[in-house]
């Protein structure tokens, strides 16, 4: 359909279940005529640490290093490091951002969190009074696709893991919504390591099927009610 | 009091407000007779990426790399990389873990998330049926001490940022409680960059005061009710 998709992928092993989900997404979306870009974070050895190295040249204030201020200033003068500029270009061009990863400690893996920390800097993704519905990354969609270790029954309102939506709040609302990006329903594969080969195949098929009609989906209402009602 | 404290600290700049909070904690706890160790993650250039490099020698299954399985196996045979073994030793010896960091995207900075991902491996911090109240890191306390960018009014049940406890769920419950570590009330300094110098000093004093009676505190009831009631 001519749409552009960026898949930010955080798994070390191409033969993993996450690797299969990635492969399916690339194939299905490409078949639809989308242009698909993959940021394979481990393969890229993507740097997750937010440091002075992210700023090329002189600092705004070299007396006391403030990462938020320095990256904001560097963004404005075109002085961010090359790896960040490249990721920002991919984000800028994308109509849809898909994040594919295994849930690690109720959260995304550090390498993916580092992508968020370093790529979505002030001036690029949001600004002083430009956040949430006014965030700078307008007219984009996002989708969190992940696998869990624990089973579905663990992640319920009464389960020890709580409603799975609780872990989505910081990611979907705190990051994507904050930047003005709309959020599609997450895609969650529960405990693929603990189910039968048949069940795993069903999960892969379900992902492929969902992608076929993805562009007809409405974003969720990314408000407190969706998460905690 | 002879207690051992590990402070895991994630800020790039010693002159920052987080740096001041760290300094206060080290001074006050040392004055009490505690033995204080600091893991200064940026200064250590701590590696946040969970990769094959964390396993010394042969892999359990080199056909398809599974980080969880490989680190578990490596832990059992004493084959984890040196930097992880050192951090695990510090955790093992500690009575109290303090995490000091700026909230970044409703969450901890990637470098600190990487510490969680890599240090708290299966076999060391939890095991198959040893999680939550049965987690392997018994008889330890933890305390999340962090600064925010947004003000206190933003983080309320009706505020756009939601109750601040929502962002604590994955950290306190999903990580510390999962490992059997008890959780003390978090210590939150709201928007230190946007308040007066006087207010900042008050915040530093409040932290110092709290630490004076820290060992008398009761852990929170780290259940769904505390976060979402």
From TrEMBL, chains A, B:
Q: Which GO terms describe its cellular component?
A: cytosol
Which reaction equations make up its catalytic activity? Answer: 1-(beta-D-ribofuranosyl)-1,4-dihydronicotinamide + a quinone + H(+) = beta-nicotinamide D-riboside + a quinol
Kindly indicate whether the keyword S-adenosyl-L-methionine belongs to this entry. no
- Cellular localisation: Cytoplasm
Record-annotated Flavodoxin-like fold domain positions = 3-211
Q: Tell me the GO molecular function terms.
A: dihydronicotinamide riboside quinone reductase activity; metal ion binding; NAD(P)H dehydrogenase (quinone) activity
| Xref: InterPro entries | Flavodoxin_fold, Flavoprotein-like_sf, NAD(P)H_dehydrogenase_qn
Known cofactor(s): Zn(2+); FAD
- Record note on quaternary structure: Homodimer.
Write the protein's name.
Ribosyldihydronicotinamide dehydrogenase [quinone]
Which source organism does the UniProt entry give?
Answer: Sylvia atricapilla
């Amino acid at each position: 359909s001519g749409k552009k998709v960026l898949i930010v992928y955080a798994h070390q092993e191409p033969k993993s279940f996450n690797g299969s989900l990635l492969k399916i997404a690339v194939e299905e979306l490409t078949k639809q005529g989308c242009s698909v870009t993959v940021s394979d974070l481990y393969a890229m050895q993507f740097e997750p640490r937010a440091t002075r190295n992210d700023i090329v040249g002189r600092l705004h204030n070299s007396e006391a290093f403030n990462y938020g201020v320095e990256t904001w200033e560097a963004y404005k003068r075109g002085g961010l490091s090359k790896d960040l500029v490249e990721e920002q270009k991919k984000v800028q061009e994308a109509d849809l951002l898909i994040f594919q990863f295994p849930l690690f400690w109720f959260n995304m893996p550090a390498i993916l969190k580092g992508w968020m920390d370093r790529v979505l800097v002030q001036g690029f993704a949001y600004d002083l009074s430009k956040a949430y519905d006014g965030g700078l990354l307008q007219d984009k969609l996002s989708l969190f696709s992940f696998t869990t270790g624990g089973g579905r029954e663990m992640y319920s309102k009464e389960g020890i893991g709580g409603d799975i939506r609780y872990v989505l709040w910081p990611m979907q609302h705190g990051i994507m919504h904050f930047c003005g990006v709309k959020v599609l329903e997450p895609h969650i594969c529960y405990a693929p390591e603990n189910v039968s080969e048949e069940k795993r195949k069903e999960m892969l098929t379900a992902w492929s099927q969902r992608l076929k009609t993805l562009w007809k989906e409405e974003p969720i209402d990314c408000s407190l009610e969706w998460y905690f009602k």
